[in-house]
Structure prediction request, 280 residues.
Amino acid sequence: MADYTNSRKGSGAPYPENAIETARQQVEPLITPDLLKSRHLFGVPLVSAMKDPLTGKQQVMTDDMLADYIEGAVSQAELELKIDIFPVKRQEKQPFDINLYNSFGYFQLSHRPATSVDKLSVTPSNQMDVYVVPNDWVEGAYLHRGQVNIVPLTVAFVQGTYIPQQSSGGAAFLQILGNKAWIPAWWQIEYTSGFPDGMVPRVVNDYVGTVAALEVLSQLALTYARSNSHSLGIDGLSQSVSTPGPQIFKVRMDELEAKKLALTKKLKAIYGFKIFSGTL
Prediction:
């Protein structure tokens, strides 16, 4: 079990952003099969149109199957939205960049939403910590967006570089960095990303439920593949019946696709980041 006793946490909850108190509950446990049926599949018979050739009965989509679709939707959501839904403890290396260092040690973490910085150190390729930055200096106001800064308690401006003065050894060591513009894989950051305590924003649950419902409807639609039309004739009388076949859930699937696209844009706007470049 990870120890977060000395970790630097963000200013507030990752959702709503930096909230410390809210009158309305906006986070909830991960969507369940029952919620999936009531929110996204209301009125849809979760029964195969084809009969099992062995039992002669129509197969029913069970809660265990729905739970499996939800797990798959979670993985898809994390890949498409580039966020962590459940907590993950991570370790990544970042280069030393003199421009970022002079901007109060600016770091952009690769996974969001980050909830705590557990350790920030100078760790070369031998994986031996040369210098561990005190967590009191780590600023986490924008941690949910993956931004971390080093803001020392006391600083002195030395040759264009901010040098922490808490310990003479650390100050002397970091002062050397003022002579280098860029060093690869210099910093090592241990942090935790994902929504804490298994509580997911309602909007993320909507996204996961939408993706899971699309997969469920796609699987059910396949069972209607042989039900397009049929006719019956007796003693010169005939009757023809046409059905939507595999298109039976098309309207609902189109609605869910549109909803997924809208939710994707909203969630990327909250937890994603854009890079702009230009010339002067």
User: Anything to note?
Assistant: The CA atoms of residues 28 and 256 lie 21 Å apart.
